[in-house]
Design goal:
The protein has 267 residues and is α/β, with parallel strands linked by helices. Helix content is 38%, strand content 11%. The protein has ten helices and eight strands. α7 (170-178) packs across α8.
């Protein structure tokens, strides 16, 4: 079963054929190398496209039964270990975060060529509202290359903040997210980790990226704010069509459904 869709697809398909596998299902460029070739359906999400691999192997009815019984099976999950969770606790304590008080994670940086940014002053306004109304502390996460940009963004804020950019591996970051109450995030990699630990979140989505491809459509813990459509991003594009008021209202609604410091919803 071949599910990679990167530039290495043909190499992986050829390796599977040479290994002697009798059934080779995949999204292959050279479809003659597979026994059950599939073509990517842009009308479906990445997850639903990958679930087609299971169906192609003859498990259609079982797949339908399992998804009908538990729609959450469509959602990715990660499970940090006790050691990774201990690292997350230590990192939060090191930066002065009090875990008896609410924590919001902000994911504010993406690769610049992706054109998925939201203005710093808007992040500031939302952070101050969360601190004033819920006593939130703000934890910023990202890559090592995001450290300086995050420090610049958080400098004007009046509530306790932490910058964990570049301080975690993937599962340590998942553990940090698991200790938070809510997230405000751009459409970027760490958003999928927040999704996988069932963290309620508001996603600020760009107009040029198809929502069906990666965003968690139909997830009751995710509010996707995508207020425009365009075929491609212009060089100066910023997600100005998503307002502070809209973000704040959706965060309030999520926090009403999942009150801060109540962890029963992650079970």
């Amino acid at each position: 079963m071949l599910q990679t869709q990167g530039n290495e697809r043909s190499k992986v398909t050829l390796a599977a054929m040479l290994s002697g596998g009798h059934t080779r299902v995949g999204f292959a460029v050279l479809q003659q190398l597979t026994t059950v070739p599939l073509s990517f359906d842009p009308a479906l999400s990445q997850i639903d496209n990958n679930l087609r691999l299971v169906a192609a192997l003859g498990h259609v009815e079982e797949l339908r039964r399992q998804l009908a019984a538990n729609p959450e099976l469509r959602e990715p999950r990660v499970f940090p270990s006790a050691a990774q969770t201990a690292t997350a606790h230590a990192l939060l304590a090191e930066q002065g975060m009090d875990e008896s008080k609410p924590i919001a994670v902000f994911i504010t940086q993406t690769f610049i060529a992706q054109r998925k940014s939201w203005r710093a002053e808007r992040f500031h306004a939302v952070a101050e509202t969360l601190a004033r109304e819920y006593g939130m502390q703000i934890v910023f996460v990202g890559t090592k290359g995001d450290v300086a940009a995050i420090d610049e963004l958080r400098a004007p804020l009046t509530m306790p903040t932490a910058n964990l950019a570049g301080r975690t591996g993937i599962l340590e970051l998942a553990a940090v997210l698991q200790l938070a109450d809510v997230a405000l995030t751009l459409d970027t990699g760490p958003m999928h980790l927040a999704r996988a630990v069932r963290l309620p979140m508001v996603i600020i989505a760009p107009a040029w990226s198809p929502a069906v491809e990666w965003l968690p459509l139909g997830n009751p813990r995710a509010r996707i704010l995508k207020n425009a459509e365009m075929p491609a991003a212009t060089p100066e594009y910023i997600i100005d069509e998503v307002s502070v008021a809209e973000v704040e209202q959706n965060l309030r609604e999520l926090l009403k459904l999942h009150p801060p410091r109540s962890f029963h919803w992650r079970a």
